């Protein structure tokens, strides 16, 4: 089998390593078949799409809607690298699944309006499939409405005509979309479980996702409902695109 690639941008080792472990667990891949590239540590290597089965993108600290003058050199480099990669990915309709930061990368590439009107605090929210989502193969077998972990400062408020809306939540109109037949992005986190999001809550305390006195409330919010369905998407993606 040709390997998959996980493009990651987390600078903190503990959540970065746990993110990789969670992708391994829920895709069913081993380290040989899911190659991790930490983009915050250095430039994106050349990715020969002919030698890959597909691309995953994990979550990250960057916000596409931040003013250009406030973006770090690393963020500007990463955004330029994703833009170039997505030129080829979209043109070839190559299998791609971006989780959370995938909305910023693919959405920005396609000209979506990304702003802070539909941010969601770290929590569990009900995500509902659209009519297009109900027939999408990546969401096959999932309930019409399922609980998912979220936590984001920005979101897409308007999709471009090139995108198909697949799922929404009450506070965030674009939870998942597709470009072409095989290029996907989710605002929610399909890779997370309770332990994984707990690690991130502790790692990113003080990063503006919740107030200094809201740690316990945030931890309680991610335990209020069982989250079991979104991770199925990762195994489905691998089964659909492994070659």
From TrEMBL:
Record field: transmembrane: none
UniProt-listed InterPro entries: ChyE-like, Class_I_gatase-like, GATASE
Assigned keywords, A-Z: Glutamine amidotransferase
Residue intervals of the Glutamine amidotransferase domain: 49-193
Top-level taxon of the source organism: Bacteria
Protein name stated in the entry: Glutamine amidotransferase
């Amino acid at each position: 089998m040709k390997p998959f690639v996980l493009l990651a941008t987390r600078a903190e080792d503990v959540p970065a390593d746990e993110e990789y472990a969670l992708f391994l667990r829920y895709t069913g891949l081993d380290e040989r078949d899911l190659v991790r590239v930490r983009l915050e540590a250095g430039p994106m290597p050349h990715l020969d799409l002919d030698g890959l089965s597909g691309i995953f993108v994990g979550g990250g600290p960057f916000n596409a809607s931040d003013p250009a003058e406030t973006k770090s050199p690393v963020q500007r480099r990463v955004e330029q690298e994703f833009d170039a990669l997505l030129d080829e990915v979209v043109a070839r309709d190559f299998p791609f699944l971006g989780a959370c930061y995938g909305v910023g990368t693919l959405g920005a590439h396609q000209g979506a309006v990304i702003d802070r009107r539909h941010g969601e605090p770290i929590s569990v929210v009900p995500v509902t499939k659209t009519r297009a989502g109900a027939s999408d193969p990546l969401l096959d077998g999932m309930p019409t409405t399922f609980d998912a972990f979220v936590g984001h400062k920005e979101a897409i408020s308007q999709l471009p005509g090139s995108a198909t809306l697949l799922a929404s939540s009450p506070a965030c109109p674009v939870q998942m979309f597709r470009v072409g037949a095989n290029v996907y992005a989710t605002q929610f986190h399909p890779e997370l479980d309770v332990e994984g999001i707990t690690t991130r809550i502790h790692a990113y305390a003080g990063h503006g996702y919740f107030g200094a006195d809201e740690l316990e409330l945030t931890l309680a919010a991610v335990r209020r409902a069982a989250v079991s369905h979104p991770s199925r998407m990762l195994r489905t993606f691998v089964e659909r695109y492994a070659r």
